[in-house]
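Batch manifest, entry 17 of 40.
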Amino acid sequence: MKITRRTILLAGPGLIAITATPLLAEADEQIHVVKDPGCPCCNAWIGYLRDNGFNVSFEERSVEDLAIYKRERGIPEALSSCHTATIGDYTVEGHVPAADIRRLVAERPAAVGLTVPGMPMGSPGMGPESARQAYDVLLVGLDGSSSVFTSYPAA
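Output type: structure tokens
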């Protein structure tokens, strides 16, 4: 096949679209956060996600409604935290780092999602990383079980 100027001009927009698609997908990671209206650390985590390239929407619910939502999304009470997010079909509970959310979405395990139970100091949205307590990000299985997804040592 002979490559002509016309072939290049006609193929150009398609090639640009194909090469730009991964960049557009990464820059437009949609995550929706459901939080308690009075929780400042939830707002800090939302800011952290935005700073890390996520497109964040959020809504506020009462503590009671938020607890119901967590159960509906498959988060066991023992593994809960202050806010609950969804990205695709996954649930992200608490102060989960952006890198772990991206890994979850890339690897696509058969799971409910990720959680950082409680509110460990130094996790995203919970104070400076230099004061980080050791904590684990847990993968929540479809049966409610959990396993360590990532471990973060104390700073």
